[in-house]
């Protein structure tokens, strides 16, 4: 036994300097829960309960930087989704989350290329107090799970991103990103999908406020924002949002308002051929309010989200209410419980967020899915 201990000590002594020189930080989140969901469908055949252990966007990442002198650094990151519940899912590949390389300067800002959250997404995700689980507000916000976008979710990350983030100046930060969305183009006649996203961010003490705008140009060439075969002319969808929060030691309150619009009318390829050419089809408004109160090692949370009816008409809106309780076991480990209910209008078809991997992708018009979730989150 003593010889084994000596051998391990020598190995550690030899390898430690090499690891330090590599300037690599390993980090991640292990967030696992037991979820009990009910589809709340109006049809008996699809109205059922389901229990499951969920992974809740657990992830593993590696990141680092190198000082290049004169205040300039090379930065990089590789982050991957992991299914801590043991399930496998499509798209679970290495580097499927924020993964990039770039240059950063305290005085000039950061330029990066790769896969990354859009500035629109960066502007408001921190206000979601139930992020990454089945009560994540992206069930309704950012386009939601009712297919209220064609190109991509506005609250998401994209591949093929070229982004710039400015340094903070008196609490203000700017960010802009371009998404090259036609990397699979094979013919000159194909239209190229692309996207632009920008945000103005402010944070000073307990107050934060942001504005963001994003536009998706939908193409028929294979790529990030396409293909949609048969689209005619310039097809676009866009969204803008304002968000803000107030946070002190004991409590915080947050709010987000967003408005989406498009010109999908008259596009047979999108199933809107009977509508006026260029008319708004899926555009709608949505808002989200959240609050949290801390007492000792505990916290209670409440959130409300509301999506209005789509521009094409009908009772296609929805609301979602979530309540939760957190108990901190340490600075990095928390146990939690929550309850959420999403209530669709008679023609609404929103679903609980798939981020928890425990919500059945079943509902249908007018469904009112509900869920209880009991879990533990550990960051490292």
Features of the shown structure:
mainly beta, disordered N terminus, 16-stranded antiparallel β-barrel, about 45% strand, about 375 residues, Porin, globular
Architecture overview:
By secondary structure, the protein is mostly beta strands. 7% of the residues lie in helices and 47% in strands. It has two helices and 17 strands. β7 (157-165) and β8 form a beta hairpin. It is globular and about 60 Å long.
Amount of beta strand: over 45%
Tally the helices: 2
Unreliable stretches (pLDDT < 50, length at least 5) are 1-21
Tally of structural domains: 1
Q: Can I get a quick summary?
A:
By secondary structure, this protein is mainly beta. 7% of the residues lie in helices and 47% in strands. A 16-stranded antiparallel beta barrel has the order 1-3-4-5-6-7-8-9-10-11-12-13-14-15-16-17.
Furnish the topology, listing elements before pairings.
Blueprint: H1 2-22, E1 24-38, E2 49-54, E3 59-69, E4 72-81, E5 99-105, E6 109-117, H2 119-124, E7 157-165, E8 172-180, E9 194-204, E10 207-218, E11 235-247, E12 251-262, E13 285-295, E14 298-307, E15 318-328, E16 333-344, E17 370-379
Antiparallel strand pairs: 1-2, 1-3, 1-17, 3-4, 4-5, 5-6, 6-7, 7-8, 8-9, 9-10, 10-11, 11-12, 12-13, 13-14, 14-15, 15-16, 16-17
